[in-house]
Amino acid sequence: MSIIKKQDFIDSIADALQYISYYHPLDFIQAVHQAYLKEESIPAKDALAQILVNSRMCAQGHRPICQDTGIVTVFIEVGMNVQWDSDMDIKAMINEGVRRAYMNPDNLLRASIVADPAGRRKNTGDNTPAVIHFDMVAGDKVHVNIAAKGGGSENKAKFTMLNPSDDLVGWILNTIPTMGAGWCPPGILGIGIGGTAEKALLLAKESLLEPIDIQQLKQRGAKNRIEELRLEIYEKVNELGIGAQGLGGLTTVLDVKILDYPTHAASLPVALIPNCAATRHAHFTLDGNGPALQTPPRLEDWPDITWQAGANTRSVNLNNITREETAKWNSGDTILLSGKMLTGRDAAHKRISDLLAKGEKLPDGVDFTNRFIYYVGPVDPVGKEVVGPAGPTTSTRMDKFTEMMLGQTGLIGMIGKAERGPAAIEVIKNHKAVYLIAVGGAAYLISKAITSARTVAFADLGMEAIYEFEIKDMPVTVAVDSRGNSIHKSGPAEWKNIILKKKVG
What we know:
Layout: E1 2-5, H1 6-22, H2 26-38, H3 42-61, E2 71-79, E3 82-85, H4 90-102, E4 114-115, E5 122-123, E6 131-137, E7 142-149, H5 151-154, E8 158-162, H6 168-175, E9 187-194, H7 197-207, H8 214-220, H9 225-238, E10 253-261, E11 268-275, E12 281-286, E13 314-317, H10 323-326, E14 334-343, H11 346-357, E15 372-374, H12 402-408, E16 413-416, H13 422-430, E17 434-437, H14 443-447, E18 450-457, E19 466-480, H15 487-504
Parallel strand pairs: 1-3, 2-6, 9-10, 13-14, 14-15, 15-16, 16-17
Antiparallel strand pairs: 2-7, 4-5, 7-12, 8-11, 9-11, 14-19, 17-19, 18-19
Helix pairs in contact: 1-4, 2-3
């Protein structure tokens, strides 16, 4: 029998969450590096370079890989012979560990969790509570798998109840393109098969905790049906040509993980959950001999990749930008932005909508005339930082506000991540505006381009407030130009055709 002390458990949880906020799993970095080395698509290769540079910077600076520091998910197995020395239950101890990790003044993490999700959606302020899955097992140890899952990838989770004779692989291949790029590919696909609806989803989530080993599997060959499925889905998804950040390219997924469970004879439950370019998870075991703290990796294990703007990159000053200038931009162009821009995401857009609907003015300092808005919810700064990691959020959530923003506020451009929906693209075209993307998964790198930041409105919204950023050479790509051309349509279509020709040839 082992005795697990409260403080040891809490410290282990807090340490793991801090660790995964700035250290990618090494197998993930190696897989991204291999994808970078073989990538032929220039926009995709550029995005992969930014992800690798950002990862190394975070490992060195101990700051978050992504501004969305995630919802904490814990899989815990408690041995039947474990005894606890604690005045708190297991859920309370886990949440105390989460609280301490996210409130750590040396590396503040963004609090993203809201209570009353169907109502007021008030932020809990410390990223609690965690989502906890508990199991009792044989033995005298406590095994913990812990992850921080970003909303961009979690929102792309899919579930279906197929008939037993239906084409499972076909459903996946039809589903992946509908997920867009908001999950920040390249990442890992977690697939759960069998059980019941909730069991399949749980299997998909748990599979994402396994190490990346698809290349080793390709070398030795499949030994069972699940391994055959992994290889088939891996090859066929990458043949879709979606590529890094959905820009078109050779690598969309780095691995495919599958867990299955016996199911009813009339059923075939299938769940699909992606992990993003900010893959974050850790594992530890407590045996009663103190906390289980993570071992830092060697920085030498990160590839020595640098990022620099290409020769055809255009430098733009946002302080004197005009529609005439943005009309010259083409979908796929790379641009370095400097000057001042405003920020805003879901909650800020809703408040703007409410004010305009009532005929009221926008708050002082909020003037979008001939300006750009950046969809971002940054991490709070620490030390001498102007702002914490500040990567883009998924732009499609703002699609329903696009007509209002372009038609009523004078806005001429937007910056976010991933594709825009057909209706939003039509609005952009009608108003001769533009939509740009920054790389999801490069939040710390992007923050280094921000030279000043101040809150201008809706301060009570925390990370969802409207800020004014002054930036210097922030790298972005024109995703939708003023004529309605979208790189997220043309890029994958082009690379799907290129991959098909290579395969046939």
